[in-house]
């Protein structure tokens, strides 16, 4: 075999291996013994493009409420749904879907109507409309934290995500 033929075969094998690596699936590890709707970990194979989506915040749902108030944006559940809808639209503009989300960071502000504690149950009611459903079973790894405040005093929820291009 000539040196040119050997080089051509080596290049072809390398390209084949690179193609096979990029065709690998994202692996989502469930938490053993739990049905909680988040992944314990997510593995992203080499060659995948990651997309970092900046924090999204809720839209006004009640124009009659005082500006920049919780009443203008809704409770934690309503704000979570609003934010996830905004994320879904942002992903669609980039030809991605919610199923492509592999990591989520959630910032919740204490709800004055919940003894100044974050409304985790309300967040989960909104979250589970988008993740862990029969239509969209892919779960991201996720962190949820209570923060002192967000830029607008009426916001209770901000979410940022990382997605992987299929």
- The run of helices and strands is HEEEHHEHEE
User: What class, by secondary structure content?
Assistant: alpha+beta
CATH topology: 60s Ribosomal Protein L30, Chain: A
- Rg over CA atoms, rounded to whole Å, is 21 Å
Q: How many structural domains are formed by the residues? A: 1
Terminal CA distance reads 39 Å
Biggest sheet statistics: 4 strands, mixed
Regions with little confidence, pLDDT below 50 for 5+ residues: 7-22
Average per-residue pLDDT, rounded, comes to 90
Q: Strands of the largest sheet, in order across it?
A: 3-6-4-5
Classified in CATH, the superfamily is RutC-like
Helix content range of the residues, please?
A: 25-40%
What does this structure look like?
- The protein has a single domain (25-164), classed as RutC-like (60s Ribosomal Protein L30, Chain: A).
- Helices cover 30% and strands 22% of the residues.
- It has four helices and six strands.
- The protein has helices at residues 3-22, 70-73, 76-93, 120-127; strands spanning 27-29, 41-43, 50-56, 101-109, 141-147, 157-164.
- It has a four-stranded mixed sheet with strand order 3-6-4-5. It has a two-stranded antiparallel ribbon with strand order 1-2.
- The chain starts with a helix and ends with a strand.
């Amino acid at each position: 075999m000539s040196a040119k033929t050997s080089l051509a075969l080596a290049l072809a094998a390398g390209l084949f291996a690179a193609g096979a690596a990029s065709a690998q699936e994202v692996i989502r590890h469930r938490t053993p013994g739990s049905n909680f709707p988040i992944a314990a970990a997510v593995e992203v194979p080499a060659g995948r493009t990651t997309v970092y989506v900046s924090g999204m915040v809720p839209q006004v749902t009640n124009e009659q409420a005082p500006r920049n108030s919780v009443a203008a944006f809704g409770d934690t559940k309503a704000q979570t749904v609003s934010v996830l809808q905004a994320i879904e639209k942002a992903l669609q503009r980039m030809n991605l879907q919610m199923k492509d989300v592999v990591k989520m960071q959630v910032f919740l502000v204490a709800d004055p109507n919940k003894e100044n504690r974050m409304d985790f149950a309300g967040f989960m009611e909104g979250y589970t409309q988008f993740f862990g459903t029969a239509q969209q079973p892919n779960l991201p790894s996720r962190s949820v934290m209570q923060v002192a405040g967000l830029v607008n005093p009426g916001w209770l929820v901000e979410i940022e995500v990382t997605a992987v291009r299929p």
